[in-house]
Amino acid sequence: MSGVPLAPEDGLAGEAMEEFLRQYGPIGIFLGAGFEGQTALIVGGLLARQHILNLWLVLACATAGSGLVDHLLFVAGRRFRSHRWVARATQQAAFARALKFIERYPIGYILAFRFIFGLRVASPIAIGVSQVPTWRFTLLNILGAVIWATAFTLSGFIFGEAVHNLLGRGHHAGRWTLIAAGAVVVVVIAIWSVRYLLRRRKPVVETPPPLN
After folding, report:
1. Which of 40, 60, 104, 192 has an alpha carbon 20 to 30 Å from 186's alpha carbon atom?
2. How far apart are CA 62 and CA 22, in angstroms?
3. What does pTM read for this prediction?
């Protein structure tokens, strides 16, 4: 026997899912690259390997989403320093770390800050507050977004290739690729949820009253 035949409902559900991903996947990758991080790019690479999305489209959406959002954060740091949201961001420990890196390695840091865990949001705001010229950040931001998007998208694509090599080239391999993409999303959500809960439960250190 070659296996249990698939029910017609399973085939229709799979086709509906693929069509949904083809239509709205690029939007999800654009938003995910701008606000979430590398998970959307890895999943986009998996979908490109499955031929659900075009690889160049995934790279373009990832680069545009990351570059645009980080440029807006840069503008916020440069033009709206007195706004309470920007002022709150400048009080975080990540902001001070980002400023130190910017002072020492301005060009290299602009190219690499997307790869540094915990500094993704604070970095473009800190660069905006710094003395880095707008034109320089704009050019380096675009180049950095291209490098970052390519690295993580190809990581997902190569992972999808590994799934196909392991499971074969049949339709079931494509299903496992989609399952792997879903697993990546679930794992990342779980990690961020745990980090959020641990941060919420961190005890507040009270300042002792002054001695008389």
Report:
1. 60
2. 15
3. 0.73
